[in-house]
Every structure is written in structure tokens, then in C-alpha cells.
Design brief:
Blueprint lengths: L6 H25 L27 H17 L2 H29 L1 H9 L9
Helix pairs in contact: 1-2, 2-3, 3-4
């Protein structure tokens, strides 16, 4: 165990995981028909900058990372923390590809959006 176990730690993990799920649901709902599992543009694809996208460019990844972190907190083992680190690395690799496509597709409009919306963590990163 890397983290202490107990009711409060479990409650914290559940809260972080639940917050991540809510972020994912809100972001997915905001994307509506623009969402795709594979990196792809839909017909009449729009640049979404409202809802959670007003604060971060990749809120679904933010939500997934929160869910992984919440799970890691709850189980309290090194493997969970390693999983979070691997998820962060994987997310940034995918983000790099997504942002290249969005820049190519939306050009200056995306660069302007990128200048004020953080990547994953509002006001920080």
C-alpha cells in the first residue's frame, strides 16, 4: 500500500472518480455529433468551445484521468499510481495528434481558442 486505507481515503477516491465521470458525461454531451472514438472529423464538424470546453480543450481526457486517479486513491497501491502515469502519457500522445488535426482543420480559429483554453486542467495546464 502506498496510500493509507480507510473510510475517508475511500470517500475521497469515490468523490474524485465521480467528479471525473460527471466531467466526461458533460463533455460528451456538449460534443454531441462531433464525437468519435477514432480520431476523425465528422461531416460539418464544428469547433466546440462551450460547456466544459470553455475551460479545457480536452475535458473527456480530464474526466478519464480523474476517474483513474480516484480509483488509484481508493485502492492505494503503487500499481494504481503507475496506471495514472501511463494514462497521462497516453493522453498527451493522443492530444498531440488531435491538436494537429484541429489546427489543420480550423487554423487561426483553433489557435485563438488554444490561447485561452488550457489543455486538461482549468487555469493551470
Amino acid at each position: 500500500m502506498v496510500l493509507p486505507s480507510g473510510f475517508l481515503v475511500g470517500l475521497l477516491g469515490d468523490f474524485v472518480c465521480g467528479a471525473g465521470l460527471i466531467v466526461c458525461i458533460l463533455a460528451r454531451k456538449e460534443l454531441a455529433g462531433n464525437w468519435a472514438m477514432q480520431l476523425d472529423l465528422k461531416k460539418n464538424h464544428e469547433l466546440i468551445t462551450s460547456g466544459p470546453y470553455k475551460f479545457v480543450r480536452h475535458p473527456i481526457y480530464t474526466g478519464f484521468l480523474l476517474m483513474f486517479l480516484g480509483t488509484a486513491i481508493t485502492i492505494g497501491m503503487a500499481g494504481g499510481l503507475i496506471g495514472v502515469i501511463l494514462q497521462i502519457i497516453g493522453s498527451f500522445l493522443r492530444i498531440k495528434n488531435e491538436e494537429a488535426l484541429m489546427t489543420k482543420t480550423f487554423g487561426k480559429k483553433y489557435l485563438e481558442y488554444k490561447s485561452h483554453a488550457k489543455t486538461l486542467i482549468p487555469f493551470l495546464l
